[in-house]
Amino acid sequence: MKSPPISEREFASLVKQHSRIINKVSYFYATDKVPFDDLRQEIYVNIWRGLNQFRGDSLMSTWIYRVAVNSALMAIRSSKSKIETVSLDFGLLDISSENDDVQRENLQALHSLINKLEDIEKAIILLWLDEYSYDEIADTLGLKRNTVAVKIHRIKEKLSKSTI
């Protein structure tokens, strides 16, 4: 494995800075076969491995979102075989550590609804909920802007008609 041109300390700082993205993608794509912690570790490894390929054509957060979503999708596809992980636990905060009970219930309800979506729909709605522009979502996922706009409209309709 080729090491990126940053130290482990810089990497830990980068991961901590973008932990909200990583935790959210891990949370919404985790399954019984691909647990949250395993998925998060896989994302860390893929970010570490891919850092030397980051060209700066987009924001680092956009690149990390892309790596996280692609890692999640690949983990789900290959969930029949066990994901090999490397421990990179830097003592990062758990996604629900600062939520009170009401917020946790709302998050679980949202998770339940979003989990009913197709994988690409999950990626789109998570980016949209993070207030990414249609252009940024299109760039992150390799879609056309108009496709993103139509899909967001359809996802909103689907979610508004869904019940838990």
Short overview:
This protein has eight helices and no strands. With 164 residues, it is an all-alpha fold. The longest helix has 18 residues.
Q: How are the elements arranged and paired?
A:
Elements: H1 8-17, H2 19-29, H3 36-50, H4 60-77, H5 101-115, H6 119-129, H7 134-141, H8 145-161
Explain this structure to me?
64% of the residues lie in helices and 0% in strands. The chain has 164 residues and is mostly helical. It is globular, with a radius of gyration of 16 Å.
Sketch the major β-sheet.
Answer: none
Distance between the termini: 44 Å
The number of strands is 0
Shape from CA axes?
A: globular
Kindly state the percentage of residues in helix: 55-70%
Poorly predicted ranges (pLDDT <50, ≥5 residues)? 82-99
What integer value in Å does the Rg equal? 16 Å
Which terms summarize this structure?
164 residues, mainly alpha, globular
